[in-house]
Amino acid sequence: MLQNPEKDAIKLALLVEQKHVCVYCGRAITTAHNDAHIEHFWPSSKFATLRFSWGNLYASCGPASKKGTPRICGDHKDDWTPANHIEPTDPAVEQKFSFDAAGGINPSTTGGTQAAMMIKRLNLEDPSLRYQRAAIIGALNALIEAGGITAVNVADEIAMWRSVDGDGRLKSFGYVAARYLEDEPIA
Q1: How many other CB atoms are found less than 10 A from the CB of residue 117?
Q2: Distance, CA of 26 to CA of 24 (rounded, Å)
Q3: CB count in 10 Å sphere of residue 87
Q4: For the chain, the helix, strand and coil percentages under 3-state DSSP, each to the nearest 5
């Protein structure tokens, strides 16, 4: 079992590697105890040899569930043994999901049943996540309707959402905005 200060150092290293967003939902996360935890994609309870394997460790939303808080991402996944899944390291992981105007997440044509399984297993349709995604997508749609995002500048807008700030941080749900703009037909 990891203990501090090593545990905090590993969590910080994971956050830096992931540019301070949850590996599953893309929400901005911090080193605060109640904001993120170290996630074993392949559960250490079932895959003891992977317990300290760097390729099996990620930073995910929240600590162990607290009463009254939604269980999402790695906390919701719990000790599930991945099967028919998408690993976070899959180079095409983002393209396996699409987003609708209401903030819903859906399997893309390439995501299929694997994406559907991950959405269910990680509880990515939780109302708290839908609400946050809907707010970003709603703002994008308002910009599209007002002519602020056009076919001429959409690539720049996508690049902005995928960019890191001066502290090496991605925007919260930045990949959601980028994927929505990539899929949305813009005149």
Answers
A1: 18
A2: 6
A3: 13
A4: 40, 10, 50
Phi, psi angles (nearest 5°) of residue 107: -65, 135
- How would you write 108-147 as a 3-class SS string? CCCCHHHHHHHHHHCCCCCHHHHHHHHHHHHHHHHHHHCC
Residue 43 to residue 103: CA distance in whole angstroms: 29
Contact 107, 115 (CB under 8 A): yes
What pLDDT does 108 receive? 96
Looking at 57-105, list the stretches that DSSP marks H as alpha helix, in order from N- to C-terminal side.
Answer: 73-77
Of residues 103, 178, 181, 179, the one with CA closest to residue 135 = 103
Give the residue among 164, 173, 86 at the shortest CA–CA distance from 121.
86
What is the DSSP secondary structure assignment for residue 164, as one 8-state letter?
B
* Mean pLDDT score of the chain: 93
pTM over 0.85: yes
The predicted pLDDT at position 66 comes to: 62
Q: Do residues 45 and 39 make contact, with C-beta atoms less than 8 angstroms apart?
A: no
- Tens digit of each residue's pLDDT (9 = 90 or more) over 43-99: 989 999 999 999 999 999 876 556 667 788 988 888 888 888 999 999 999 999 999
Which amino acid is located at 119 in the chain? I
Q: Kindly report whether the peptide bond that precedes residue 5 is cis, defined as omega within 30 degrees of 0.
A: yes
